[in-house]
Amino acid sequence: MIKAAVFDMDGLMVDSEPFWQQAQLEVFPKVGVKLTLQDTIDTTGVRIDQIVELYYRQSPWSGLSCEDVCNMILTRVIELVKEHKPMMPGLFHALETCQQQDLKIALASSSPMVLIEAVLEALELDGVFEAVLSAEGLPYGKPHPEVYLNAADALEVSPLDCVALEDSFTGLLAAKAAQMKTIVIPEHSQREQPRFVIADHKLTSLEQITPELLQSL
């Protein structure tokens, strides 16, 4: 029986993935890294410092540290989130449905806490989550399951009694590795990829979250 719901953030709660893509496409060329929009799509859900390190290993630059480049990208994403406040359809509905089912609710994101806090403020969600966790300081971000395991621990619930809500395959792998039930809502262009079959349920919107769906897990 499901006792808790753990929400991803980027791409699930807030339509910030285009902002991450835009920020990378703006910043990486400044340090001589050539990348395409598809490159940014392929790393969806991966922690930004891991992405920066990957490109640095492939094409080392000088003048700026990896941390500097991370901060430049993050600053740009925060600017765009605050400007546009791009809440995903059905977010309030999904949260209210979980609350009505007496589920504990947590947020578990690969994003740095400064961005998580900016999103919660922009979407007026302060105080909604019983636990808010970032993979920022962990040895590994998603697809490693630690941030999800930490979320279950913070809620004092077994991972086996949690459902994770995700949009990316990277995040889905993390939740499955944590042995949680999974609901995935892929971005439209990724929706028909067969790899999402490993999720317990694949939806097109958070608006499709129902008490019956949660009770079936």
UniProtKB/TrEMBL annotation:
UniProt cross-references to Pfam families, sorted A to Z: HAD_2
The keyword Cytoplasm is annotated on this UniProt entry: no
Superkingdom of the organism of origin: Bacteria
Cofactor(s) essential for the protein: Mg(2+)
Matching SUPFAM superfamilies: HAD-like (SSF56784)
Entry keyword set: Carbohydrate metabolism, Hydrolase, Magnesium, Metal-binding
GO MF assignments: hydrolase activity; magnesium ion binding
UniProt cross-references to PANTHER family, sorted A to Z: 6-PHOSPHOGLUCONATE PHOSPHATASE, HEXITOL PHOSPHATASE B
Family to which this protein belongs: Belongs to the HAD-like hydrolase superfamily. CbbY/CbbZ/Gph/YieH family.
Protein name: 2-deoxyglucose-6-phosphatase
Source species of the chain: Vibrio rumoiensis 1S-45
